[in-house]
Amino acid sequence: ENLRKQKATWSEVERAAADSDQLKIDFDGLLDGDAFEGGSGVDVELELGSGTMIEGFESGLVGAKAGDEKTLELTFPEDYKADELAGKAVVFTVKVNQVNESALPELDEEFIKEFGFEDKTIEEFKEKLKSNMERELENAAISQKKKSAFDQLIEKNEVEVPKALVEREVSQYGQQFSSQMGTEGMNEVIGTLMDGFRETAERRLKLSLLVGEIVREHSIEADAGRVRAKIEETAAGYPEPQQVIEWYYNNDKELASVESAILEELVVEKLLESAKTVDKTYNYKDLMTQSAGNESF
Q1: Phi/psi of residue 227, nearest 5 degrees
Q2: Domain end call among 103, 131, 148
Q3: What confidence score (pLDDT) does residue 23 get?
Q4: Residue 224 lies in a domain
Q5: What's the angle, vertex CA 2, arms to CA 292 and CA 96, rounded to 5?
Q6: How many helices (H) does the chain have, and how many strands (E)?
Q7: Are residues 81 and 142 in the same domain?
């Protein structure tokens, strides 16, 4: 269903907006009577129910028609990513320019060809998707377990990281961010992100030292068989697995990345041998969302 939604086509309709419709809107937000950064937009495409905007914004536009103007009195969540907006009351004025509804493509041979599945049946395609989802779920569970173990590792071990190393790492983050986003107007933006970069850099460096010590203490190695199994597992999600396997083994950087990931898994397994664990239940969407936010270190 999600793949069909990715290939959906949108067409304008002359009716009240419903959940899952796409709106084109202009909006202006006021905080204590003043405009604020990121609080306005022109002809923005917004899918109702997507969770893109803060709570109450999208639901407040259900029932609106093209040409309508809505006033939404909302509150930013306490844990909002911008500290200056967290927990604050805000008023949005929203003009609806257009209401669109989606049409999903048929699940047929032509559709699955768009995902690289030539000469495959619908059932084979579904089996492949199921296999991919199961693999992604297993990897997400490993990622969440690793994050919890590494959080505890940092909490229970005081490590002093040289400031020069931290600043060098922060500088690299800034350069990477600039190259990805473009340089125009980036200095001011990067300045506001530096604290986050620094926190991430300190965590990564501390973990690097702690994990390295555990690897040495227990003589942990990423054996070739486990590396091969990880590569084959990843390759299984592609239409031509053998080509992906060969690509890894012909790319030293990517191969080293897999070996590093295996070392992390082995360290986590070693930590869990002496740890008290508590089972926690997640649904698929929540676990995948949390896993996406977890760092390699």
Answers
A1: -60, -45
A2: 103
A3: 97
A4: yes
A5: 95
A6: 9, 5
A7: no
Could you tell me whether strands 69-75 and 34-47 are parallel, antiparallel, or unpaired per DSSP bridges? unpaired
Indicate whether 279 belongs to any domain.
yes
> Does residue 40 fall inside a structural domain?
yes
pTM: 0.52
Spatial contact of 181 and 228, defined as CB atoms under 8 Å apart: no
Helix axes 186-217, 122-156, angle to 10 degrees: 80
Do 90 and 182 fall within a single domain? no
Q: How many whole angstroms separate alpha carbon 90 and alpha carbon 77?
A: 11
Whether 40 and 31 have beta carbons less than 8 Å apart is answered as: no
- Per-residue pLDDT tens digits of the chain, which is 297 residues long: 778 887 888 999 999 999 999 999 999 999 999 999 889 999 999 999 988 999 999 999 999 999 999 999 999 999 888 888 999 999 999 999 999 999 988 888 888 887 777 777 888 888 888 888 888 888 888 888 888 888 889 888 888 888 888 888 878 777 776 666 554 444 555 555 666 778 888 888 999 899 999 999 999 999 999 999 999 989 988 878 999 999 999 999 999 999 999 999 999 989 888 776 667 777 666 766 766 655 555
CATH code at 169? 1.10.3120.10
Residue type, 78: E
Q: How many folded domains does the chain comprise?
A: 2
Stretch (H or E) spanning 72: strand 69-75
**4 CB burial (10 A radius; 0-12, 13-18, 19+):** middle
* Structure token pair of residue 119: 């000469």
Tell me the backbone φ, ψ of residue 276, rounded to 5 degrees.
-90, 125
Residues 152 and 44 in one domain: no
199 is in which domain, residue-wise? 122-292
Tell me: do 246 and 143 sit in the same domain.
yes
